[in-house]
Amino acid sequence: MPDRFVVGVDLGGTKILALVVDKQFAVVGRAKKSTKAQEGVAHVHDRIVAAVIEACRGAGLDPKALAGVGVGSPGPLDPATGVIIDSPNLGWHNYPLREKLQQALGVPVAVDNDANLGTLSEQRLGAARGKQHVVGIFAGTGIGGGLVLNGQLFYGASGAAGEIGHIVMNPDGPLCGCGNRGCLEAIASRSAIAGEAAVAAVRGHAPHLLAACGGDVTKVRSGDLAEAIQAGDQAIETIVRRAARYIGIAIGSLVNLLSPDCVVLGGGMVEAMEDIFLAEAREALKHHAMPYLAQRVEIMPARLGDDAVALGAALLIAEKR
Ligand SMILES: [Zn+2]
């Protein structure tokens, strides 16, 4: 536990969220800014600093008095050095984020992968509180993952372990952003679903989805999918259920490998369609994990929502102090 306040930052492709938390990890200040990554590296850095200062001001604090700042960023990155190795969405390559922020803020900074931090906060404060071995899976535009084993984040040899979205489900499957074929992300992310939904729409099988997303299925949001399913687009329900089942199949393999106590399912798609994702994942787990291991694990919905990554970032820096 920190003896002073810390700030956790969620650095996303579209928004930056900064939370000031106290010793009990209660949020006492917050600030949100758009990332505007297209305006360049230095600009994003300045907006992170501005969000931290604004959140501190809201809590009546001097930023110099903070015990530290944690940042959750899309990867891949090196958590040991805080260097962002490659982040196409933010336009960063080998960018020393930790060093730059430490210079600007004058307090210790720690940086980690956003999905790792979402998993850490759910394990410490959320759905998997008190569990020792936790797998986090966050399904939205992509599929992020994190591992807490023996109560600690697991990094592996590279520092980048936990890329659950790039488990290969079908080596002849669709191309993935990572360059491989048939990764879970290429089959079950919102981007993958949008591609299949576009085909269904062209065939006239997704009238409600077309209405929900204003005619452009490539820009489909999780809420649009939920709305279309509720309105009766059977084809969309089939596509989403299949994606959820694939996530469940991947969970089955992870359970066989790691025997976690808890798998936390979160991200925009799960929040929008929790019943479908939980039901399909739990059903697939029954068929794809060994019964003895499957009995010991629960699949739980994430609880911390939009604050999960920033809270995990606050935990990261607090636990380093
Ligand atoms: Zn991949």
The main pleated sheet reads as: 5 strands, mixed
> How many whole angstroms does the radius of gyration measure?
20 Å
Instruction: Please tell me what the overall shape is.
Output: globular
Structural class: alpha/beta
**Number of extended strands:** 13
Mean pLDDT: 94
Order the strands across the largest sheet as they lie in space.
3-2-1-4-8
Low confidence ranges: none
**Number of helices in the DSSP assignment:** 12
Share of residues in strands: 15-25%
Helix content: 40-55%
Query: What is the rounded distance between the termini?
Result: 8 Å
Distinct small molecules bound, one entry per kind = zinc ion
Helix-strand pattern: EEEHEEEEHEHEEEHHHHHEHHHEH
Description of the molecule:
The protein has 321 residues and is α/β, with parallel strands linked by helices. The protein contains 12 helices and 13 strands. The chain has helices spanning 41-58, 97-105, 114-125, 184-188, 190-202, 207-212, 222-231, 234-258, 268-272, 274-288, 291-294, 308-320; strands at residues 6-11, 15-21, 27-34, 68-73, 77-78, 83-87, 92-96, 109-113, 134-139, 143-149, 152-153, 262-266, 298-301. Strands 3-2-1-4-8 form a 5-stranded mixed β-sheet, with helices on both faces. Strand 10 and strand 11 form a beta hairpin. Helix 3 (114-125) crosses helix 12 (308-320), helix 5 (190-202) packs antiparallel against helix 8 (234-258) and helix 8 crosses helix 10 (274-288). It is globular. The N and C termini lie close together (8 Å). The protein binds zinc ion. The site of zinc ion has 6 residues, from loops.
